[in-house]
Model the fold of this input.
Amino acid sequence: MTVHSNEDATASVAGLTLEEKASLTSGASFWWTKGVEHAGIPSVMLTDGPHGLRKQRGSADHLGIGDSVPATCFPPAVGLGSSWDTELAYRVGQALGVESSIEDVAVILGPGANIKRSPLCGRNFEYFSEDPIVSGVMATALVQGTQSTGVGTSLKHFAANNQEHDRMRSSSEIAPRPLREIYLRSFQRVVQDAQPYTVMCAYNRVNGVFASENPFLLTQVLRKEWGFKGLVVSDWGAVNNRVSALAAGMDLEMPSSGGVTDAQIVAAVRDGLLDEAVLDASAGRIAKLARRWQGTARVQGPLDVDAHHALAREAAARSIVLLKNDGGLLPLQGQRSVALIGAFVDQPRYQGAGSSMINPTRIDSLVHEIVGKAGEDFVFQAPGFTLNGSGDAAALRADAVALAAKNDVAVVFLGLPAAAESEGYDRGHIDLPEVQLELLDAVLEVNPNTVVVLSNGSVVALPFADRVPAILEGWLLGQAGGGAMAEVLYGDVNPSGKLTETIPVRLEDSPAFLNFPGEQGHVHYGEGLFVGYRWYDARKIEVTFPFGHGLSYTTFGYGEAAVSANADGDLEVRVTVTNTGDRAGREIVQAYTGLASGAVQRPVRELKAFALVALEAGESREVLLTIRRTDLAYWHVRADRWVVEAGAYTVDVAASSRDIRSSTSVDVAGDTVLLPLDRESSLAEVFAHPVAGPIVQQAMAQMASALEGASAIMPEGVDMAKMMGSFPIGRIGMIAGENFGPEQIDQLLEMANASGA
Ligand code: BGC
Done:
């Protein structure tokens, strides 16, 4: 990948008129940028994204309404994320790049790295996880895969776009620590590891300022701190004030403004309200992207539809999570009769609604695939319910129950109808439709060998989890989901997916419950750092299935974990994992850290690394998980930077966030934080200072002897130093007397600050 500096970018538009430069900064149409022919700057296409190519042929829209060219529909992020498989995500990314290249698309709009803050967000299916490491690592792999083909990506929606409700106006109000440690961390990882060609700014405001005109996000954080080299594109229609947006670092407005905002930019430069150098940098970045695409060798079509379908199938199979499998009910065996129940059998939900809707090249038939495994005479089908509530519910249920009673196994396909979750709006609850729950209860009464298969873009409550022996979470699996599900049901693929989001017992238990979706234009992220499992663990709340959970048809044993720091200060965690069952399988090994009594509030444990290991039956292998030192850091609000705190960190090696297999601890050397001292500095802070500390401590000792008489009435054991620890040094004079008058204090502070310590 070629990375271009700003100077390069600016130079690339030298010689263009002011009007030409301004014209580059907004779209020519819905999906195309403008070119400047005489300067050799072509017009290029950017289009959706993220789990397939949505290249529209006729009328254009950003809601998935108009027709688009057939493309492979891979599993949306909710599925692919559950694979925790970066190598697979890379290959899917590559395939997206190939399809884009064949269609002359310079940038595919994705992936999304937003955090699943609430199960209710209508667009959770487009995001990977409630955890920033999972989101960041999976999105990085996807970006790297796509960009290896020369096609660019657009990391979106930057930032804090965690709901659909009022998404074009609402302000996400977030304190600095959760903003940095949770919501920005996933983006930071992708930007620093993969340099996406573009970042798409979100619609919403962040702490009062539109993401599209937010200099803190777009310039300070993204470019200065993280070193982003690409260009920032607006979400479609996200621009509020074009001139402020440009000044803040938002380079390309999409879609076209019909030239209106170009004229505003020209006027702002002429009136001295906008520095032309800012325009040069933005126009230059757009010119660079366009020229780079011009110089990139295209993949020649036609598309190998079969090969990409096979990859979609592999990815779908890896995305499925086996939540429960009592008595080894799964995998099913052929030549035993099976009742396939549920409307989803013939009407699979394989993607979510909105701008990410792909026109698939084909769709697997679940029934056909299962017939291929079980044998024609052993597969029976009843819808049991309809997705839109039409029909005679009682009659549909009765037919399905009768069928379940007659067959060896009932596989009941439940899920959310498409209308329940979508881009543009959120859910109001996490329940499955009543008609489906009633059907399941009735089936369970007649056939205990019941398997539930779920189709949903984000978590649903599973009130039946204790009563059903086997549950497969099938999320939204893309166009090959039918084949993939048949392979998992019949054991051709041993499931290995794990949850990247907690399944709570009730919506009321979830972290953002009291602060979602906000009101009157503001949504307060009141749960702070405690998003997802960080919340359930801190509050010891029972969950239906925890973050990181997922079973296999085999079992895995873990040895004792060992941790050591390498030369870069990263932690290397080693653990031997053994396949203790009787078939080959894949295990996702997770490493969490914690620091019990630190300087700041922390979750009980936080995921810091994961690794996937494939093992034959009986095989053992040592797994290495590398925890980056930067991922141990917290955001120090007063120092306004990342700080690794010194201490003995626990390292939990786990099969899920609530299935810790080996626990150990490691001493980590901390970063030094010396804030300048002033009169407001507390005695505790002064004591900790290498220069001022000893002087003040000595003076305090003298003071203590002067106060000996007074301390006689103190209850025994009261810690005077602790008692006075929060006392600002500027006010110590009233107790310490003449030793610590205002002048002495100022001298001391000056000396301490001048020491540079
Ligand atoms: C979505 C983006 C999408 C864009 C173009 C917007 O409504 O938020 O994710 O890429 O439309 O379709």
